Amino acid sequence: MRIAICDDDELSRSMLISHLNRYIAAHAEQEISYTAFAGSDELIFALDTQNDFDVYILDILMPGTNGIDIGITLRRRNYDGIIIFLTSSQNYAVDSYDAKASAYLLKPIEQSKLFASLEAAYAATIAKAKDSIIIKTKSGHIRLPMDNILYAEACRRVIVYHLLTGETQESTTLRVPFAQAMQTLLADNRFSLCAQGLIVNLSHITQIANDEVLFTGQQRAYFNKKTCLTLRSLWTEYWANNKKWCKQCIAVSVSVFDHSHN
After folding, report:
1. Residues in a beta bridge with 133
2. 138: DSSP letter
3. Fewer CB within 10 A of the end CB, N or C, for the chain?
4. Is the peptide bond before 177 cis (omega within 30 degrees of 0)?
5. Considering all CA atoms of the chain, what is the largest pairwise distance in Å, rounded to the nearest integer?
6. What does DSSP assign to residue 139?
């Protein structure tokens, strides 16, 4: 677990580091590291030059960009990890809502409360890592949460990942067969190989037409009729096995969508 600490108050930052060192010493079996930043400018520069941290511990009141604004910026960059806010006032609790804070700790920091927040953060980080894949792109290695992937396709010897955010991520040159490269995703029952060079997250499909698939967030993808026919069968089986939808519900949904496009 990689932690970023950002607090412009030297005494407060030193106390936080002291608590954190005690936590790390008491949890030697966990892989934990941290980087301390003396102000928001240092942290913002780091965000543009290195990979995201797993956890951000941010002081709210800092000169320049405050902690809440940094948290909101992280969320706008699609960061879905842990943000813990530090402050000497409870008046900012409502403001921190937009940054989706995981914890809100008052100064002076109580070690027991910090430890409880770190334990929860570590558990969440491990769970997320197990539900993610690491891909190599031209700009470096990135982590993609599996649930953020709508579908992935082989295109001109690279893999293009289509994401829930509407964005795409492109791998470096594919040097093994597509199915082999997709082994991690295929081990998860949400994903299925429905055509050569195409894997789809069945859990994010909402409707299927003859040559069109509608995903969560109203995103659309166009595949040939044979692929959509195969995908429809896989989708029906997926929901039937997971007991979330019945086959009749899926058939009605597909039928309505097909008629609306005729």
Report:
1. 144
2. T
3. C
4. no
5. 69
6. T
Q: What is the helix, strand, coil percentage profile of the chain, to 5?
A: 45, 30, 30
Res 95: pLDDT: 61
CA quadruple 110, 112, 113, 114: dihedral, nearest 10: 80
Amino acid 253: pLDDT: 38
Angle of the 225-242 helix axis to the 247-260 helix axis, nearest 10:
150
Alpha helices for the chain (secondary structure H): 10-26, 40-49, 67-76, 111-130, 178-181, 183-186, 225-242, 247-260
pLDDT at residue 257 in the model: 40
Q: In which residue ranges of the chain is pLDDT below 70?
A: 49-52, 78, 90-98, 243-262
Nearest to 251 by CA among 230, 233, 227, 226: 233
Assigned token pair, 260: 């609306």
Backbone angles phi, psi at 56, to 5 degrees: -120, 125
Q: In this predicted model, what pLDDT tens digit does every residue of 13-36 receive, in sequence order? A: 999 999 999 999 999 988 899 999
C-alpha 145 chain-centroid distance: 4
CA separation, residue 90 to residues 60, 118, 148, 184, 194 (Å): 11, 21, 34, 44, 52
Token duo for residue 144: 């993609």
CA distance 153 to 122: 33
Which H or E element spans position 8? none
Predicted local confidence at residue 134, as pLDDT: 87
**3-state class (DSSP) for residue 13:** helix
